[in-house]
Each structure stands twice: as structure tokens, then as C-alpha cells.
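Record pair follows.
FIRST:
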Amino acid sequence: MKLAARIALIAGLSVMILLIVHEGAVGIIKLLSKAGWMLLLLLPLHVLPLLLDAAGWRALIVAPCKLLTLFLIAVLRQAVNGLLPVANIGGEIVGIRLLARAGVDGTLAAASVIVEVLLTVVGQYLFVALGVVFLLQFTQAMRLTNELLLGLAASAPVIALLIVLLRHGSVFERLQRVAARFGPDLQNSGVAVRGADVDVAIGTLLRAPARLTRAFGWQFAGLLAECLETWAGLQFLGVSVKFSEALILESLTQAARQFLFIVPAGVGVQEVGLVAVGHVLGIGSDVALALSLAKRMTRIVFGVPALLAWQWTETREGLKRLRRRSEG
């Protein structure tokens, strides 16, 4: 998986560089320079979706947990998935470990993250569907809309099957049995939990409609908040669009990134998506690429300090364990 992610990263970087060179790096830099300090306003706008996601996550945790703690873990989860070659799944494992370290039972932590990811999949499905509706309304792009509708229709049974498996399939008990056959290394995720217990905890959450509704509401609000960041970024770059057009751009680009999830940070995928959808909406390719770079800037500003702090914490914890072993 790591090798595949690294190959995908190299391919994505190549695509991104080719796009920038083709559209003119100088022109893109001029657009970013013209926007100037206003692009810094994207930073507080990026806080909002992360905070809303953290609120949704807290609704799924059957234990007391501070919103600030979950927000900081959410920042790190996004940084791990977005800046490291982990095929967009490593952040969830890190999130489980840190939540357990914060005092939440490991089984409850694992179940909360798994159900949150499931709700994210459902939310993004409906988010893309909403984007397709707006796309048809504003552009009458029948061919593209039909292709997207076919993709949504094909995805619906997969999502339904995933829900059924998580609720009734004892997925993690089976996975733990498989891992046991290959030795303890494959079982070590940093949190001591039994697969059967995780399955029970997931089933309990999936039978709690009030919790699921609250979590889904916060998550969907977070998706809409990401559209605000896209809308504002285009305004700063000198392109006036409606919020619904920003929603089309954000939702369909996210769909492309999720489809090619193995590409770290969606490098190249995000750029192609913004250029392609932007073209349909009448947004220039140079503006789309400048927007992509501005959005990546916010991820880097948030992500790099989070990764450094995490590595410092992990190193300190590792040294403490070594000291205890030497003293014992």
C-alpha cells in the first residue's frame, strides 16, 4: 500500500506540474500575488469545517471528551491523510490512538472513528448529489450530469452493503482472526482492542438514531463550510461566483479525490478536478490552479505544525517507555 501510494504521489505531482506549466506558472503566481494577504483569511475559514467535523465526532463518542481535544486530533488526522503517503487512511488510525490516549476506552474510540468515516461517506455521497443537481440547473451539461448520475447510482449499493456489513457482518472480529494468522505485527495498531468488541460498539452506535442524526448534521454542515472556503478563495482571486457554484466545484472535486483516494493529498487529482469543473462553470484554468494552490497552502500551514507536534509527542512517549524498561 505504501509503495502504491508513493507511485500515485509521483504521478500526481507530475500531473500537477504539467498543468501549471501548461497554463503558465507566471500567470498563476501573479494571480496569487494580486490576492496577496487576503488569502490568509482562508485560514480561519478552514477552521470552521474542522470544528464542525469535531462536533460531529463528539456526538458519536459515548464518553466525556472535550471539543478542543477532538479538534486538535481532527487537525492531525487531516494532516496525516493529506501530507503523508498513507492512501488517506493513516489519519484514522492515528485518531483512534490519540483518542484512547486522551482517556477514551480504545473500543469506543475505534467504533466512533469507524462510524464517523461511514457517515462521512454517506454525507459526501449526498453532497455530490446536491452538486450534480446544481450543475444541471446552472449549466445544462447533460452529458457530464448523466455520467455523474450513473456514478452515484453505481455507488449507492456499495454504501448500503458497507452499512449492512458494519452492522451485521462482524467485520473486525473476522479481520482480527485473519491478522492473527500472519503474526502479531499485523494486529498492532497501537490500541489494545478486540475485534468482536469493536463490532458490538459499532452496532450500538448504528442503533442510536439520535446520535447518528446529530453527527451527520454537524458533518454535512462541515461540508457546506468547505464550500465557503472555496467561494471566498475565488473572490480573493478576482472571480465572483455564487455559493451554489462553489458547492458544485467543491463537491465534484471531492468526489474525484475520494474515487482516487490512494493519491496522497489528492495531488494532481484536485488540480484536474478544479480545472475540469471550473471549465464547465466558466472559470479559467489559471484561476482554478491558483485556487488549488491557495487551498493547499492552508492545509500545509495547519498540517506541518500538527505533524511536528505529533512526532515530538511520539518521540517523548517512546523515550519514556525506554526509560521505564531500563529502570525495570
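SECOND:
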Amino acid sequence: MNIAIIGAGGVGGYFGACLVKAGFEVTFVARGEHLQAIQRDGIFVKSIHGDFATGPVRATDRITGLANPDLLIVCVKAWQINGIRDDIAKIIHPGSIILPLQNGISAADELSAATGRSFVLGGLCRIISKIESPGIIHHIGIEPYIVFGELDRSQSERLIILKKVFEQAKISCRVSDDIEADLWKKFIAICVSGLLAVARANYGEIRTIPETREMMISLLQEVYDLAIRIGVHIEDDFVAKTVAFIDTYPTDSTSSLTRNVWDGKPSEIEYQNGTVVRLALQYGVDVPVNRFVYHCILPMEQRARLMTARSTG
């Protein structure tokens, strides 16, 4: 199977390296010094489960330079999807599978607008990882796994094939019979990232201080209530389960959105708390904590995007 990893950051770099290690033909799409390091030395993964290196691998900075990929795992930031989807549409063949692993709930729909819905699966992953330095991925916490499923909830042959690929690479995975619900479950949990950014706190701090823990739980409950109002099927005790899961995160861990806001970089805020605020207005659900978080980050987000546009313009 010819596999393309579009975005070789903490997520794509880690899972792509696992696929290379298992012997699959993998090409990475990356940029800048990270791309150069991958082309020269491959990817080195520092992991809580043991370090490993891929050795030299194929890598490019052009999606259109990929040759007829059978599987495209899309790992760029959620806000970057619209900018690359037309290039993805140019390189797929009739049997191609597109698996987006973005935070949020809109990636599959945004990709489908360019490629057609039949190519795209719904997907998500759980892992705390980041680029530590060019060519080096640091897996900091959480047992990595991938969940994927057909957008129409059908059980297809390609789901079986993809599951075998991940199992061969020793990547924990699950085929979902309701990928919409699974996407929302992750979405609910990741919206805490914005609260971390506003509080300038890690998960350990946010969950142990009574006042911020209460805010965290309220934020989760708001997103859960919104999901139920929309008609997503999620179990009644999901918020309690999510809090218990967050309590297992490494004390000093954060999220990519949190770090991006702190570093003055564009973030996924529009695809997390911003999406909550917009959908809540549409469905008549009150989300005061999410609205507070979103509006606090919005000026920083606008500043970051303006600075990025000036530096690249």
C-alpha cells in the first residue's frame, strides 16, 4: 500500500513513523527545516513506550508531487484543510482512501467538498505529541490510537483493510459504527485546550485548582448539552468519564492549541470553542464558559494571523 502522510507534525510524524517501521511505503509531506531533517535522516521518535528511528524516508513539500497514493492520512491543522483539499483532489485515484485526523468535527465535510464524499472516512486520534526539533517527534503521553469509520455508518471492506494496516504497524485502532458520535466525544474533550490557553495552565494545574476544575467541568457539560441538542448519540455519563480521563493526563502536559496561543501562532480556536459558540447560537444552547474562552482568545488569534500574513506576504 502506497501511503501519504500529509503533515508530519506530532500526529503525522508519530503514526507515519510507525507505518515506516512496519515496512509500509510511506511518503511524508512537511516543510522547512523539519522537511530537510526528514529527507536527510528520517524521523526519530522519542516515546514513553520506547524510542525508535525510521532511517531515511521519502518526503516532499508538495502534495501534488505524491504519486497515486492508496491511503492519505491528513494530519495538518484543522484550519489548513481548505487550503490543501484541491491539491488532494488532484492526486487521488478511484481506490484512494482519505483519512483525516484533525481536531474538531468538520474536516471530513471540508475535504469531501473537493474530493467527493466517497473517498473520505471520518477519523480521529488520541495522542499527546509534538515536534521537539527538526526530524524529532516527542510522544509525551496517552496510549496512541486511531478511530475511523464510514460517514454513512456502513461497514465496508476498506475499513477491514485499514484496520489490518494499523494492526501490522502496532497502532491501536478501532472501527467505529458511529463516527459522528466518536468525533463529538473527542471534540468535547479537546475544547478544554482553550481554557488552558486562557488560564496559562497545564492539565495538572487546571484540574487541581477547585475554581478552574469547576470551569473545566462546566465547559465540558456545555459542549455535551450542545451535542445532545443536535442529536448526537452520546452516553449520559460521558462528561464524568471525560473528567476521569483528563485526570490521567501527565501533570505538565498541554495541547497543541494551547501551545500555539501561548507562542503567538495561529491556532484551531475557530474549530474548537469557536465552533461551539456558532452551533450553540444556531441551536439555542447557552454556552457561557465556551463563549468566554473563545472571546478571550479571539484577539490573540487575529493578531497571530495578521503577523503570519505579514511574514509570508
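COMMENT: Residues 2-177 form a domain with the Rossmann fold fold (CATH 3.40.50.720).
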